[in-house]
Amino acid sequence: MRCKAKAAPLEAHLGYWLRFVSNHVSHAFSLKLAQRDVTVAEWVVLRQLYEKESLAPSELAEGIGMTRGAISKLADRLEAKALIEIGRDQMDRRYQSLALTKAARALVPQLAVLADENDAAFFAHLTPAERAKVETILKDIVRLHGLRAVPIT
To answer: Rounded distance, CA 44 to CA 153, Å?
Structure first.
């Protein structure tokens, strides 16, 4: 007769609840962005570039925690949508810089409103103290584990 090992239910794990909420928050946001023909990954790139005049793809990749290849694909998609310009150096053809177009500079604040609305839809019921506590705990986990990659999915 074999003794059946006990296994905790999924709901017993904090990671389950974090993923449960995260999936729903992310999915709702991706639907909002899709109405503007932007993906979450594209939004992250646009938002990062919004703070800068221009960035090299390698700097952007490092800041977001993505591979250069992934940034290159995103840059190509955003260039095709006329949301970024890819500058190429005449002297060193390997060097590129990424910069938002005028249209993207106008779009990013509109997309930021969608991000704020999405956040409010899920977290507005929390008191400021509760929200601050959740944020502190999550940031502490990020710091403790040295997490760097920006969530894009």
So the answer is: 10
- Report how far residue 39's alpha carbon sits from residue 26's, in angstroms, rounded to the nearest whole number: 11
Distance CA 45, CA 54 (A): 12
Lowest mean pLDDT among 10-14, 25-29, 149-153: 149-153
**Amino acid code (one letter) for 106:** A
* Residues 88/96, Cβ–Cβ less than 8 Å: yes
User: What is the pTM assigned to this prediction?
Assistant: 0.87
- The three-state DSSP-derived secondary structure of the chain is CCCCCCCCCHHHCHHHHHHHHHHHHHHHHHHHHHCCCCCHHHHHHHHHHHCCCCECHHHHHHHHCCCHHHHHHHHHHHHHCCCEEEEECCCCCCCEEEEECHHHHHHHHHHHHHHHHHHHHHHCCCCHHHHHHHHHHHHHHHHHHCCCCCCCC
Name every residue whose Cβ is closer than 8 Å to that of residue 132 and which is 6 or more positions away in sequence: none
